[in-house]
Amino acid sequence: MSIEVGQIVTGKITGLTKFGAFVELEKGTSGLVHISEVSDSFVKDIHDVLSVGDTVTVKVLKIADDGKISLSIRKAVTNTQPKEPRKSFHKPSFTKKSNTPTSGKGKDFDSLMSDFLKDSDERLSSLKKNTEGKRGGRGGRRN
After folding, report:
1. How many CB atoms lie under 10 A from the CB of residue 70?
2. Please, which pLDDT band fits residue 126 given cuts at 50, 70 and 90?
């Protein structure tokens, strides 16, 4: 039986490394399951999930020109089990704020503008005080 891309086969784990697991498919044929293809969840240490001698079901992802075979346990399990629909994340809906401030009801445009300018000047002066001494270089504060 020859191995083809897309085929799902069973094999036995013959070796574990920090980057993946070597799986013997047929006598004399082996492939590598990269650590990212072991599980849908993050795997920090492959020894926590697999051990030498385990029998696993794998899907053949790629066969390179030099004969190296890339395998996936994750995709083999996904294909054999019906996939549950993912719960999508919905962003909370926000209501649009009106442009008129609630504290300014009943005020005319000129008084609202003067209040805005005062507040703006206070914020700018506070910002300048806090950043002026932090501009680096010699001589401390600059004018």
Report:
1. 18
2. confident
Across the chain, the runs of DSSP E, i.e. the strands, are 8-17, 20-26, 29-34, 55-63, 69-72
CA 99, CA 93: separation in Å to the nearest integer?
19
Question: Considering the domain boundaries, does residue 100 fall inside one?
Answer: no
Per-residue model confidence as pLDDT tens digits over 76-97: 876 655 545 545 555 555 555 5
Range(s) of the domain holding residue 117: 106-130
Measured CA to CA, the distance from residue 46 to residue 35 in angstroms comes to 7
Q: What is the pLDDT of residues 26-45, one digit of tens each?
A: 777 889 999 999 888 888 88
- Rounded to an integer, what distance in angstroms lies between the CA atom of residue 61 and that of residue 67? 13
Facing residues of 8 across strands? Answer: 59
Q: Is residue 53 included in any domain, yes or no?
A: yes
